[in-house]
Amino acid sequence: MPIQQSDVLYTAVATAEHGRDGRVATDDGRLDVVVNPPEEMGGSGAGTNPEQLFAAGYSACFQGALGVVARQEGADVSGSTVTAKVGIGRNEDGFGIVVEICADIPNVDAATARRLVEQAHQVCPYSKATRGDVTVTLA
């Protein structure tokens, strides 16, 4: 269910110049990066790219969601990591992305880890935002 504007707690603002081959900066100056397409897409690969930025945001958000569900379950996720692998490729509409979320949760058994990851996928805002349009694989 979409949130209402009155329920927004924080808004991030970023502005791009020259698309995938330029610069992206936030309004508060905390992020200011050169972006370039990766070499695999004909770019120089000299800067970061939108897929890396999306992977960084998704992995951080998913790790937070994992912590929330772990607290609710009384599970120990200390020392855990979440890696997001974001791929881009051609589809019938031009380009699309695919995501693989890999969680390493050393202090729980495999079945508990799988359950926690699946629950985190249900509550993570990035997972919710991509649902129905992006293939997301959990590992």
UniProtKB/TrEMBL annotation:
GO terms for biological process: response to oxidative stress. InterPro entries: KH_dom-like_a/b, OHR, OsmC/Ohr_fam, OsmC/Ohrsf. It comes from the Bacteria. Belongs to the OsmC/Ohr family. This is Organic hydroperoxide resistance protein.
